[in-house]
Amino acid sequence: MTDDQLLKEIEAQRSLMVAVATGGPKIQEVNQQYTDRRDRITQELRRRNIQDTNPHGDLWAWYGRWSAGDLGSWASRRAHLSEMYQPLLDQIRAGSNATGARLFEEPTGWSRVDRGIYEIRRRLEQAEVEEHFQAVGLLCREVLISVAQVVFDPQRHQTEDGTQPSETDGKRMLDAYIATELSGSPNEGVRRHAKAALSLANDLQHHRTATYRQAALCAEATASVVNLVAIISGRRDKHG
Questions:
Q1: Which of 131-168 are b and which e, b meaning 16 or more Cβ less than 10 Å from the residue's Cβ?
Q2: In the chain, where are the structural domains located?
Q3: What 3 state SS string does the chain have?
Q4: Successive 10-residue mean pLDDT values, the chain, 240 residues
Q5: pTM for this model (two decimals)
Q6: What is the CA 51 to chain-centroid distance, rounded?
């Protein structure tokens, strides 16, 4: 499901909740529709590592909430649903509008890496001052470390100088990973590209990325490294 499709599903769910709470259809007539759509929404939010702001498992639970006493008017129920859903809609739109065309929208499946990439996109979208741009660079560093820790095997991936990398030396680990997994002359061009992207991401996140352009370049280079490593590792292969 694309971000636009997910947004439409969430809007439809909110509209249904408004309808049943403001004199619309009876709950027993549309509850299955609600729960089926909730399952689809939950699956997509989980794939994006996003927390659902709607706590109501079915429309009877929503009925219990609006009849509790503080949502006596139809207007108050509409306002409550708007407040409940708006942060979720904003979060999805922030990820969808982040800088950089994304060939692969699907998460890698490495949960910490995926959370980091999402957070980079969110921070970049909201960044306005120097400290915000610098924070994007720090997040990029953490993502490179996280992806390196996932794929680096000290028994298989030997560093060029023989130095055993520390647990936070993301560049050294990824350099060794790329050199091993893309060894041989047929892979020379791909290896060069992967190492160039890694060097760019590493250089940018070590600078004081104090402008939007620097932060955006760092974010883009980091996302490129993550996708390259995911492809090399087989995470982007099509199965079935």
A1: ebbbbbbebbbbbbbbbbebbbeeeebebeeeeebeee
A2: 3-96, 111-233
A3: CCHHHHHHHHHHHHHHHHHHHCCCCCHHHHHHHHHHHHHHHHHHHHHCCCCCCCCCCCHHHHHHHHCCCCCCCHHHHHHHHHHHHHHHHHHHHHHHCCCCCCCCCCCCCCHHHHHHHHHHHHHHHHCCCHHHHHHHHHHHHHHHHHHHHHHCCCCCCCCCCCCCCCCCCHHHHHHHHHHHHCCCHHHHHHHHHHHHHHHHHHHHHHCCCCCHHHHHHHHHHHHHHHHHHHHHHCCCCCCC
A4: 87 94 94 94 84 89 91 91 84 58 65 87 80 86 92 91 88 91 87 83 70 84 88 75
A5: 0.56
A6: 12
Judged by phi (left if over 0) then psi (alpha if -120 to 50, else beta), residue 112 lies in alpha
Phi, psi angle pair for 227, to nearest 5°: -65, -40
Which residue type occupies 132? Answer: H
